[in-house]
Amino acid sequence: MPAPATTYERIVYKNPSEHHYMKVCLDFQDRGGIEVNVAQFKQLLVSSLKDLFGEVGAALPVDVLTFEEKTLSAILRVPSSGLAKLWSSLTLLGSYKGKKCALRVIQVSPFLLALSGNSRELLLD
Q1: Nearest partner of 77 among 51, 116, 110, judged by Cα
Q2: Does an H or E element contain 63, and which?
Q3: CA-CA distance, 34 to 16, in Å (whole number)?
Q4: pLDDT in tens, 24-45
Q5: Dihedral angle at the C-alpha atoms of 94, 97, 101, 102, nearest 10 degrees?
Q6: pLDDT by residue (tens digit) across 2-27?
């Protein structure tokens, strides 16, 4: 009697990571005394999502993990399913409190540790 045929199942994970992390920086054409704290920065993210995607976009859970007021840079955590929405809304951001600005995406990774260093800025002794 022949042995039963072995069956194989192929499973492909296109993106097994639940979240993505983004390192972003807010640049002003002329900062002119504008101070931005973490709450205002978070509101800026939510309003840019709302402008582009409406209430559904504003409901996207975006976490500000770190925010540096001096450099206006932050690390954000977003569900992988909402990465494209957040990135596109940040790209189309054009002003804050009447001042022209751009929110630049520096790095994106599914791993938070990957944002800890940048090999392009590495200084060797």
Answers
A1: 110
A2: strand 63-68
A3: 40
A4: 999 998 877 888 999 999 999 9
A5: -60
A6: 777 778 787 766 667 899 999 999 99
What does the DSSP 8-state code read for residue 53?
H
* CB 69, CB 37: distance < 8 Å: yes
What are the contacts of 107-114 at 24+ separation with CB within 8 A? Answer: 107/22, 107/23, 108/20, 108/21, 108/22, 108/23, 108/83, 109/20, 109/21, 110/15, 110/17, 110/19, 110/20, 110/21, 110/80, 111/17, 111/21, 112/21, 112/65, 112/75, 112/77, 114/21
pTM of the predicted protein model: 0.80
How many whole angstroms separate alpha carbon 40 and alpha carbon 24?
Answer: 15
Q: Is the dihedral of CA 83, 18, 75, 56 positive or negative?
A: positive
Name the packing angle between helices 83-91 and 38-58 (round to 10°). Answer: 120
Neighbour tally for 39: CB within 10 Å: 10
Beta bridge partners of 44: none
